[in-house]
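Weekly structure sync, notes
Attendees: PL (lead), two postdocs, one rotation student
Agenda item 3: pending single-chain targets
PL asked that the sequence for the first pending target be pasted directly into the notes so everyone works from the same version. It is reproduced below exactly as submitted, 109 residues in total.
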Amino acid sequence: MKQEETAGTVTETRRRKTRVYSAKEKIQAVLSLWSGRRNASALMKELHVPWGILNGWEKRALTGILMALDPKWKQREEGPLSLPGRLERLMEQTVNPEPPVVTPVDPQS
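Predicted structure, written out during the meeting:
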C-alpha cells in the first residue's frame, strides 16, 4: 500500500483495485491453459493476475473434476488419451499428495 501526504498532515492509503473474475472467465482461462492454447505467462499478463491465483484456479478446477467423477469409473478402451505434462503433474500432486516430513525429537535434550 502506498501512503501519500496531502494537505500537510492528512495521510491517505491508496489500494490497488482488485478485479473479481466470473466463474466463466476462470473456466476459460484454465481450459485454455490445459489445452495448450495459451501458456501461464500469457494468461497472467492478459488477466493481470499473479501465478498463485492462476495456480489456485487450476487446483480448484482439478479438485472439482475429481470429486465429480466416480473414482471407480473406467475409461472405454478406445485408446489412451494423453494430457499435457503440466496437467499430469498437477493431477498426480492432487491425487497423491506427499506426506509431510516429520523429524524425530530427541527426548534427552
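Discussion points:
- The radius of gyration is 22 Å.
- DSSP finds four helices and two strands in the chain.
Action: rotation student to compare against the earlier draft before next sync.
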